[in-house]
Structures
1.
Amino acid sequence: MKHMERTDQIFKNLQEELKKGSTQKSHPFRYFTLGTVGLERSARQRTVVLRKVSEELQLSFYTDFRSKKIIHIKENNKVGLLFYDPERLLQLKIEGLATIIKGKAIEETYSNGVPERARKDYTTALAPGTPLEDPKVIEYLKKENHFCVVEVTPYRIEYLKLQQPEHLRIRFSKRQELWSGEFLVP
Ligand SMILES: Cc1cc2nc3c(=O)[nH]c(=O)nc-3n(C[C@H](O)[C@H](O)[C@H](O)COP(=O)(O)O)c2cc1C
């Protein structure tokens, strides 16, 4: 029972830290590595910004609907998220299911949540990743945008804190909407 209290407390803390990552600009969890695996089964990773963490621990980021990561997610919505805090030597490996949200449902997020200068990220005439002659000459769309939100619902979180005398490694799993943790050999 005591063990359970301990892992529950750690889960609460990690939830708080993730929330801070989405609200505090200098927090180490502001950026994370997103891993996807599409149909060709090779792992792809990239850095994205953590935009929102809901009460149910859904984690959101913004992207261009035409990007490779979206193609991957459409093929296979199982994704991996990697967070690392170098000061606390703390790593979170999150496994979850990604949902792509586009169109009317997120018009307000785009109008209020994306500053003018960042909108160009979602309005290039050519899709992101298209080869370019001159990086200074990029054409932007005036009316349309390809903005979308990806929301990840985690089902497993692995917590690892390097510390003395013993490192701490815990696997949290979600079953029937409830999270429980078990200690693992680090
Ligand atoms: C600091 C930093 C933050 C980034 N944030 C985002 C982001 O929030 N969303 C995004 O789509 N790409 C972001 N990128 C770019 C991605 O890492 C990636 O290069 C791009 O999205 C194309 O990835 P893809 O071809 O795998 O889809 C960021 C890159 C850096 C260096």
Note: Helices lie at 2-23, 68-75, 107-113, 116-119.
2.
Amino acid sequence: MAKKTKKGKKAELLEKREWAMVEGILEGSPDGIGVVVVRLDCGCRKMAAVSKEGEPASKIIMYRDNAESICDKCKDDQGDYMRIVTQFIHWKDPEPNQEKKNSISLKVMGATETVTH
Ligand SMILES: [Zn+2]
């Protein structure tokens, strides 16, 4: 029987491919203190760096795993928020304090982090 390994580290909320994207975005966004990661019901992803003021610090990047482009649905509605499955902010090290995180989350996503892990 295969044993499930359980790791409780927050960073592992990110999937491997998402990691690569997030790191690329942070590298290209010196003002970014984190990256908003949005997973859509169709499997596409939407990401953008956010500044410490809670403003966009990069352009919004949309992509789809193993595909040349995003799906037709997303081309149509640009990843409408109605179709969001999960969204959270991956913070760059060192992470801002909780208060700051909450206020940025609120500004960017209209809610505090909803991750329940
Ligand atoms: Zn899509």
Note: Residues 40, 42, 44, 70-71, 73-74 surround zinc ion (CB under 6 Å).
